[in-house]
Write a structure and sequence with these properties.
Elements (H helix, E strand, L loop, with lengths): L1 E3 H4 L3 H9 L4 E5 L2 E6 L10 H24 L14
Parallel strand pairs: 1-2
Antiparallel strand pairs: 2-3
Length: 85
């Protein structure tokens, strides 16, 4: 996210919250980057809402795989001698 230094004066609290959530905020002056606001932690963290979304996608995929496995069984793939059909 790019923000001019003059605009950042009025929204510093919001910009710091964004940085805490893992976003890098670039401060610009006349279109040139002059500073960055980044998380203090050296490791990047994934914002909670993104992590919840990822968890939901994984859960949904697992449920779909279980449902698909119930429909398809090995009996349909091999003949009575164990050879592929």
């Amino acid at each position: 996210m790019d923000v001019s230094v003059s605009a950042a004066k009025g929204q510093l609290t919001d910009l710091v919250k964004r940085a805490e959530a893992g976003e890098t905020v670039l401060l610009t002056r006349r279109g040139e980057v002059v500073a960055r606001i980044v998380p203090a932690s050296s490791r990047r963290t994934i914002p909670r809402f993104r992590m919840e979304t990822i968890d939901e996608i994984v859960r949904s995929a697992k449920e779909k795989l279980k449902a698909q496995a119930a429909v398809t069984s090995d009996d349909d793939l091999y003949d009575e001698f164990g050879a592929p059909k």
